[in-house]
Amino acid sequence: MIAIITGATGDIGEEFVKRLVSEVDQVWAVGRSENKLDSLKERYGGKIVPVKADLSEKDDVFALCRKIEEEKPDIRYLVNNAGVAKFGRVSGLSLEEISDMLDINDKAATLLCRACIPFMAEGSYILNIASASAFQPNPYITLYSASKAYLLSFTRSLNVENEGINCTAVCPGWVDTKMLPKNSNGYKVKYPGIVPAARVVDSALKDCRRGKDVSVCSFYYRYMRFLSKVTPHKLVMKIWVGMIRKYI
Ligand SMILES: NC(=O)c1ccc[n+]([C@@H]2O[C@H](COP(=O)([O-])OP(=O)(O)OC[C@H]3O[C@@H](n4cnc5c(N)ncnc54)[C@H](OP(=O)(O)O)[C@@H]3O)[C@@H](O)[C@H]2O)c1
After folding, report:
1. Quick one: which of 48, 132, 151, 192 has the fewest CB in 10 Å?
2. What pTM, to 2 d.p., does this model score?
């Protein structure tokens, strides 16, 4: 029985490794840096199987999908956690940055779900790490937020299509990881309701085992989700832009 975790070398990814390594026979730790993967193996032991793949590269993603098809492992957990965030207006991003972000955040996660599902028995789990930014459009993190909205929608539908496999979209607000810039436009950035990565992962695992299709770890962001459902999104976007204006 195995767990496949993408972005295993990142802050949230490593928290998943820490919790799942004792539950399965192997953790396929997917990452693009050999050094970081080796260090993960040193720290968590022989159950870690480093799988080097750059998820912005179609060839690497297809090779990983083929490896799954050939080895036919019994997959208990698929955690699509790898993600990138390029903030700023879409017109300020290069074509390459846009293409890579959509490939990593959405395309790779989608293809891995497709490749893994045939090898997932009843009672297994797919956790796709989306974001609370999926709940409404967020100008100036437009592309990131839209990529996570795709993942949220995709995961909830997948959960209905695949009885027996619980699919959960994990939607934390700000998480204290290296993904978040400390300063922007000369200001120290404030992140309301920020939580540690460990809390996100504890609550994601608890929620997926309870059969939830969406996991939001803090009361603050559960309340934000409620507000985004009952408030016109034009108004939500106006408030959001007001909050982040000085950082742009
Ligand atoms: N931090 C937040 O506030 C927050 C909030 C909501 C959701 N999330 C989501 O949580 C997930 C994990 O992010 P994090 O906060 O833990 O940040 P992180 O520490 O920067 O982790 C991101 C992970 O993605 C991997 N990755 C990036 N580009 C890749 C590529 N081309 N191929 C393969 N792997 C790649 C990174 O690999 P390297 O180690 O090689 O860089 C790293 O392991 C992401 O999907 C993110 O969108 C984060």
Report:
1. 192
2. 0.97
pLDDT one-digit tens code per residue, 160-205:
999 999 999 999 999 999 999 999 999 999 999 999 999 999 999 9
Helices (H), ranges, the chain: 11-20, 34-44, 58-71, 95-102, 109-116, 142-161, 197-209, 219-230, 233-244
Contact 62, 53 (CB under 8 A): no
Whether residue 83 contacts residue 33, with contact meaning beta carbons closer than 8 Å, is answered with: no
CA-closest residue to ligand 1 atom 36? 7
Which residues does ligand 1 sit against, CB inside 6 Å? 7, 9-13, 31-33, 36, 54-56, 81-85, 104, 129, 131, 172, 174-175, 177-180
**What is the extent of the structural domain holding 204?**
2-247
77, 144, 150, 221: which is the annotated catalytic residue? Answer: 144
The percentage of residues in the chain with a pLDDT greater than 90, rounded to a whole number, is 99
The CATH number of whichever domain residue 89 belongs to comes to: 3.40.50.720
